[in-house]
Design brief:
Nucleotidyltransferase, domain 5; globular; alpha/beta
Length: 482
Amino acid sequence: MGDIRLPYNWKPRFYQDPLWNYLSNGGKRAVVNWHRRSGKDDVFLHHTACAAHERVGNYWYMLPEYSQARKSMWDAVNPHSGKRRIDEAFPQELRATTRDHEMMIPFKNGSTFQLVGSDNFNSLIGSPPVGLIFSEYAVSNPQAWGYLRPILLENKGWAGFNSTPRGNNHFKAICKYAETANGWFYQKLTADDTHIFTTEQLAEELAELQALHGDDYGRSLWLQEYYGSFDAAIPGSIFGPWLDKAQNQGRICEVPHDPNFPVHTGWDLGRTDATAIWFFQMIAMYINVINYHESNLKDIPFYCDLLRGKSWSDDTTDLRALKEKTKKYQYGTHWLPHDARQRTLAAGGKAIQQQMIDQKVGRIAIARRLDHVDGIQGARATLPHCRFDKVNCEDGIEVLRHYHYEWNAEDKIFASNPAHDWASHGSSAFRTLSLSWKRPKERSSEAPMMERILNGSVNNQTFGQLKNKHLRKMKDRREARI
C-alpha cells in the first residue's frame, strides 16, 4: 500500500480556502452560511478525515434526523465522480472496518467517524466526540448543541455548523454570535460570491419558486437558498405567524411565576423519543406560560422528581438537566395526552396515568382526543391568549416556530400532516395545553341570585338534564383523578 495523503484527492475551491485554513490551523468553532450546493459538507468531511488522524478520538457528523443520515450522507454519491462521498473523504486503506448498520467507520489509528441525528443526540452511548459537525443546522434540534457543548469545552474539541437559513431561528442566532465572538469563524457566501450558477440558472430558479409560491414568498425563498437571507418564514410553518404576532405585541417577555396561582402542565409523552412539558398559569385573561422542559429516555419517576423540584445533579447523562432550574411549584392539574391511559413507560407495565397517580404529584387529568387538524386549530386559537417567558420558554418557542408541514417536492404541495421531527413533541404538548385551559369567569357577569337559584332548582330541570349532568360528573371523576 502506498502512502495516503489527506485530504484525499481533494482540495478546497477558492472560496472555501478561508474556512479550510481556519480549521487546519486548529480553529475550534466555525459557522458558515453558504448558499445551496456550495460544498459545505465537502469541506467538513475532508477536515474530519484529517483531524481524525491528527488526534485520536470520536468524530460525529450530525444530520437533523437520524433517518436522513443514510440517504443524504452515508449512501450519497458525488454526481461529478460517481463515488460515495464518504469513500472520497475516508479511503478504505485507512479503515479498520466499516459498520454499515451503525453508519460508523473505525480507523486503524483508533479514531472513529459516525453519522448521528440531532433528534436522538442524548440516546447515544459510548465515548463522547472530540469533533462535531452540525449539517443543515437551521433544521436541526438546537438542544443538541446545548447538550454537547460542555463536552467539547471539557475535552478541548471543535465544532462546525453549516447551513442555509430557515427563517429567524437558532441558526440566525448562532451566525450573529459567531460574526463578532472572539475565536469563532463566520462566513456568508451568496451565489454571486461563488459563481457556481449562471445568471440564467438563477433566473430559472426564481421563476419556478415564484410560480409555486407566489411572487413575494417565492422571491423570499430564492433569496434564502441562494443569498443567505433570513427574511423568509419557515416553509409550511404552522404556528409562525401567531408567534410573530405574540412577539410584536410584547407577549414574549419576562413572565415570572406567581406563587398565588397554581401551575398547570401540558404533556406529550415519549419513551424512545422525547417527553415535553409546558408549565402555565391562568391569571386574569392570560395564559402565562412560564417554563418548558424536554428530555429523552426518562421514566415517570424522573419527571415526578422534576415536578417536586428535586435536583438531578447525579444524573450525568442529562447535561441539560444539570443547568436547568428545578421547577418547584404549587401545582393545579397535570394534563396528559389521551393515550396516557393505555401507554406504559417502564414501572412493570402500569399505565402512565396510574404511575403518576401513584407518585402523588397532584391532580392528573386526560385531555380530549382530537386529530391533528383540530388539535392545531385549538393551539392556534390558544396562542393569542398566551404570554411566554422569553428565557425559560426559549427552547419551547423555538420548537413551535419550527413545527411545519412537510413539502412534497414531487407533487409541489405541502403534506396534510406535520413533519415528524424534533419539533413534534413540544408542539404536541402545546396542543395538550390548548385543550386544557378555560377562560376564568368574570364575576360581574354572574346572573342575579334569584335567577341562579331558580336555574339550579331540581323542579326547574328535566330528568334527562339531571341524568346527563350526573353522567358528566362521573366521567370527569374517572378521567381526572387525584
